[in-house]
Amino acid sequence: MTGSDLLDGSSWVTDGGLETDLIFNHGIDLPEFASFPLVENADGVAVLERYYAGYAVIAAAAGAGLLVETPTWRANPDWGQVLGYNAEGLDRANRAAVDLARRAATTSGLDSTLVSGVVGPRGDGYLAGGEDPDEAAEYHSAQVRSFAAAGADLVHGMTITGPAEGIGIVRAARDSGLPVAISFTVETDGVLPDGSTLAAAVGRLEAEAPADWYGVNCAHPTHVLPALDGAAWQQRLRFFRPNASTMSHAELDEMEVLDAGDMSLLSSSASTLRGQVPTLGVLGGCCGTDSRHVAALWGV
């Protein structure tokens, strides 16, 4: 099965802003904004199982498939070291995350389910990353190998701030034999943190290391609309996980309370975006969103 066949033309519900939901709505402490340590203890596993179950309900109501994305956005060597994880510990946690996601998919009872191994940026998702694709490939390869060993269906690089790191993640996925999606993030003007346009970022990957799918996350729909130019590249976009808030990344970084945004604006602007990019079939949320936002985006 090729990557394009895996998602084909169908629709898929995925989850919302895991970390902001757990921190602000459930009072769970996540040092360094990392949710992957939760897979290491029974209480954390129970929290995540309840979390994913809420999105299975939405998928059933929407008549869509369920894409369960692992809580591993921070489970890489730099962030892992800060949290006390060595290479062996990260391998264990990344594999356990895939196992948990697979159980959540199976428990959903839905006919169409997939498990995505989430790769986050090496640095901060709000700041431009490195410029060396080979270095990025080497850096992210261990996490991707863990996903492949545990049986993930695909890799999803999220909140990617520039094309170089995206190329590296694609190369790491190809080396492990997994299909791969790359979702970039954009600022309020539709431009990536490294200064690339979304069109240029997708175009560079298409030229050097094509992903199976592309997407955008951690940006409000009103921030993505300025990036669209009607050209053919935007029909390669498949994933969309918007923020609830219209604030900039810098403003969100300073917030000590949750901005859950304007639900009506989120829904209407997402509808406008999907009208311009009908290929956006994988839909969930990012910072500030929870199951209520994702249900609203799906109209259920």
Which labels suit this protein?
300 residues; 12 helices
Description:
InterPro entries: HCY_dom, HCY_dom_sf. It comes from Aeromicrobium panaciterrae. This is S-methylmethionine-dependent homocysteine/selenocysteine methylase. By secondary structure, the protein is α/β, with parallel strands linked by helices. It has a single domain, classed as Alpha-Beta Barrel (TIM Barrel). The chain has 12 helices and 8 strands. An 8-stranded parallel beta barrel has the order 1-2-3-4-5-6-7-8, surrounded by 6 helices. Strand 6, helix 9 and strand 7 form a beta-alpha-beta unit. Helix 3 packs across helix 5, helix 6 crosses helix 7 and helix 7 packs parallel to helix 8. The longest helix has 21 residues. The mean pLDDT is 95.
Tell me the CATH architecture.
Alpha-Beta Barrel
| Helical residue percent band | 40-55%
Characterize the biggest β-sheet: 8 strands, parallel, barrel
**Count of beta strands:** 8
Alpha plus pi helix count: 12
Q: Structural class per helix/strand content? A: alpha/beta
Rg value: 17 Å
In CATH, the topology is named TIM Barrel
Count of separate structural domains: 1
Protein name: S-methylmethionine-dependent homocysteine/selenocysteine methylase
Pfam families: S-methyl_trans
Cofactor: Zn(2+)
Keywords: Metal-binding, Methyltransferase, Transferase, Zinc
